[in-house]
From TrEMBL:
<dbReference type="Pfam" id="PF00027">
    <property type="entry name" value="cNMP_binding"/>
</dbReference>
<dbReference type="InterPro" id="IPR000595">
    <property type="entry name" value="cNMP-bd_dom"/>
</dbReference>
<dbReference type="InterPro" id="IPR018490">
    <property type="entry name" value="cNMP-bd_dom_sf"/>
</dbReference>
<dbReference type="InterPro" id="IPR014710">
    <property type="entry name" value="RmlC-like_jellyroll"/>
</dbReference>
<protein>
    <submittedName>
        <fullName>Cyclic nucleotide-binding domain-containing protein</fullName>
    </submittedName>
</protein>
<feature type="domain" description="Cyclic nucleotide-binding">
    <location>
        <begin position="9"/>
        <end position="100"/>
    </location>
</feature>
Amino acid sequence: MNAPPTPGMLRALPAEHRQRLMRFAREVSFPQGARIFEEGGTADRFWIIRTGTVALDMRVPGRRPAVIETLGHHELIGWSWLFTPHVWHLGAEATSPVRAHEFDATAIRLLCQEDPALGFAVAQWVGGILAHRLHSARTRLLDLYAPYGSGSLR
């Protein structure tokens, strides 16, 4: 069973908050196969995908990284930048050419501190994405590694 998709920033945040955040956006691109970040690395930025797809993956000892979820248009790449200790919990790789808006995490955290309403909206948005991704990770890992017939998710 899959969790419902989380809304992109365009639907999750009020227009005034989106506009303030977008002032900090910088356009970037990644070729297919590029590692955007590695699990355990410093989470000092985040991205919103404009075009292309990105696979989120997780290291599994003795195996290839397990793909947890594939992200696309308007989706957030990275949530670890918002929470101390600001270390990536997953890895990310471009599975097609990607164009994205990149944001400096420190600047956005400061903006959120200066404007509590914006900070709350961003925390709600990222928190919803985090909940969705944790559910996806659990489901995917059960699909890959749980014994057959071990039970369903509830």
